[in-house]
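Input:
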Amino acid sequence: MSRLWGWRLALPPALVLLLVGGVLPWVSSAYVVSLAILFFLSLTLAQSWNLISGYTGYVSFGHVVFFGVGAYTGALLATRWEWPWLPALLMSGAAAALLALGVGAICLRLRGAYFAIAMLGLNEAVQILASTWESLTGGGLGLTLPPLLEREPIYYLMGGLALGSTALAHVVASSRFGLQLLAIREDEVGAEAVGVPTTRRKIEAFVLSAVPAGMAGSLHAWHVSYIDPASVFSVLMTIQMIVMVLLGGAGTVLGPVVGAAAYTILNEIFWVRFPFLQMTLVGAAILLLILYMPMGVVHLLQERGWLPRTRKV
Amino acid sequence: MLEDSSLYLQVILGGLLLGALYALLACGLNLIFGVMRVINVAHGALMMLGAYGTFWLYTLWGVHPLLSLLLVIPAFLLFGILLQRIFVERVVGGPELASLLLTFGLGICFANLALNFWKADFRSVPYLSGAYTFWGLALSRPRVAAFTAALLLTLTTYLFLKKTRLGKAIRATAQQSAVAMLCGIDARRVRRITYGLGAAMAAAAGSLLSTIYSFNPEMGHVFNLKAFAIIVLGGMGSFPGAFWGGLLLGVIEALVAFFWTTQVSEAAAYLLMLLVLLLKPEGLLSASGGAAGGRG
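Output:
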């Protein structure tokens, strides 16, 4: 009964949002569409980070590496080998997944500290590789891409990706798999004792989290038509993912949505004007969130009774 | 042939000289990890602040860089104790996610405040030049001075941990925090002093580094990664492991830079780290598997 009630309550706003999102490119300016693309990108990345770090508690400090690898895969396939966009998009997700599988198989057998350290280094190593392998990647000068897709198709694709990764989070959250991930976060030894194949689950979650980040990377590359190692492997993007998820609520489905929306709006209103101060504030925000609101906004709303207390949000 | 071997010796010695700074940095990191199972992601940023401390003392008042250590070390000991009291203590024993992200946030704050106030310009402290030459080898004077100071500081800390009551309390807490508390050791105090010591070691490494390299507020990031690679090499939580790991990384980087390029040598640390994680995650230099599995 209460479940039906929850669905009925959530359905109208969701439909309105979908409708607004669907007609947005026809009724608004290029600026608003670009802003929306940025929001979808942030949301996809936040969901991606949340899937491994929010659910299992294993902090991926170099998550932007999947975005960067996806960006280079998409850019190279589309320009050098002239693949059509759809297979190129899928391949960029696959490339990120493959990298996650390799790294995860090495680092996720161990406890979290090793994983965090290894991910911090991985992004750096891959960035150096991209800068030095000039014959393939164009090195530090970067790659300029011919326009592959218009702004509108990018908008719908990025929107679809954001929606898809949120739907994925919803499915994971209410599944046995998701429960096992949460068990790993709460007590890994205990989870193992009751028969959760922890290493396997962690690797699966990691690979799953890499896919949307990689696909977002190639869409981003086609959108901005220029990529270089410093911008697509930027540590700031990892920091952004972390702060968005912490703000909204780690290990929840709606947390990344709230976090990404808040971040995009704040960024647009005033942070762009004080770039250095922005990062200081982001650092301070991480401190304060960890100390005073480790569960994020969504949990706060749940406690107030404004959101149902199920894992599905 | 003789020329060749002296060239290699020169490269290896150069690596050792730098490696001692890495060792000082990584020993502080491992000390903190050993006692409270917290990976101090702010370590590189503390190092950067130490470098600026020496830089400003030298630039504004002409304080000799090695003497500036006498100010930098106590200042960062206090600063570290303060950081522990206000921030880090609250996440000790909590989920890993909290301590990793908290120290990460601290590091971001420090780096960007420094960027705000001191700009992104590269700075250096060129107080000494020239080289010692013997047996056909040439060792730059500031590097030898930094090496000696780093070695002495690491050794002093080691002796402090081995011989003094407080040092023994720190090691006891690292081994078995609950039992140490039963024996009347004030674990919170021990943790404060440990974080202070770790911060002071990072800052001292930064001070010394400022005399041989140019740096800017973003240097912390690269050195964080190096320090992490070192403690993985040497075994997490092990003080001697971090020391030998630091020297080893210095030499490996020097050799890779000599045979390939400096850029590849930056990546060498990470590739080496991944390799160690794959083959011997308890660390190359640890005899037993004691520290394996981190929290385990």
